[in-house]
Amino acid sequence: MRRKKTFVCAAFVLMAAAVAVGGCASGQVSRAAQTDEGHKTGQMVLVEGGTFKHKRSNYSDGEITIRDFYIGKYEVTQREWTAVMGSNPSRFRGDNLPVDSVSWYEAIEYCNRRSLMEGLEPYYNIDKSQADPDNKSEIDPHKWIVTINEGANGYRLPTELEWEYAASGGQKSKGFKYSGGNKPDDVSWNWRNAGSKYLKGGWSWQSIENNENRTRPVGKKKANELGIHDMSGNVREWCWDWYEDEIVESGMFRVVRGGGWLGDVHTLEIVFRGMFEASGVGPDQGFRVARNA
After folding, report:
1. Which three-class secondary structure string do you get for 9-48?
2. Domains and CATH numbers, the chain
3. Pairing verdict, β 50-51 and 44-47
4. For 222-252, b where at least 16 C-beta lie within 10 A, e where not — what string?
């Protein structure tokens, strides 16, 4: 299988963490699933399984078949997060903004807690009493052992395969470069358009900071072929998997996909694979949930 654009600049990852320090298709819907300007933030979209139709996908060689699953129509919002977790870690505050500054571990706990609140079987088993032997990070203070209940109907993070399949439009894919289109500003909040004015030229941290860039309410940009919003841009999204390629060994980082308001435009591409330390947080780091169909 092909792999494209396989790593994120380490400086970008560290900068995102530093900024943070500075600053229902199936089952029931939680209390957080309230409307805001017509957006039902608890909605899930059924993704019909099959092989990848997107010709430029990392997995378009036909060897991979995806089963049906549900995925969040929107990134998890701060309203949803607070209703489940009781507090809000986000740097940029707003009920209908995506929750930001959450680690992979916190996303996993959210999934289990939300499942219990809605009478669903938790998808994850979390053991905090000992260190995960597969975790090779030298800076992760947690290293929880997290295993799955494969048949459970509770909330979970999408796998990297599921994420890219949904972002590419599944069986309805039109082969777009970004999730929903070929023009990034039509489908995403990114470093150029997420601030007080539109930025031009090359990526510049100083320009971003001076422009007051930030997250934006979910669902404001054009949806992709499956009706899913913000799979390019706004916040980077945690996936279940360890990141692995020809350079980086498994156990160092977890996969993040979709880019965000902070990164350069190429990170928004459907095929771009990102990585982040599992305990890391950043103002451009969030997630969306999935469930078994």
Report:
1. CHHHHHHHHHHHHHCCCCCCCCCCCCEECCEECCCEEEEC
2. 10-290 (3.90.1580.10)
3. unpaired
4. bbbbbebbbbbbbbbbbbbbbbbeeeeeebb
Angle, in degrees to the nearest 10, between helices 78-85 and 104-117: 70
Q: What percent of the chain has pLDDT over 70?
A: 86
When pLDDT is averaged across residues 39-64 and rounded to a whole number, the result is: 85
Note the helical H segments in 140-216. 160-167, 184-187, 205-210
Six token digits for residue 39: 């957006």
Q: Where are the alpha helices (DSSP H) in 90-249?
A: 104-117, 160-167, 184-187, 205-210
Distance between CA atoms of residues 264 and 277, nearest Å: 19
Q: Which amino acid is at 58?
A: N
Q: Determine the length of the chain.
A: 293
Considering the entire predicted model, what is its pTM? 0.87
Distance CA 92, CA 207 (A): 18
- Which residues partner with 37 through β-bridges? none
Residue 80 in tokens: 């949803």
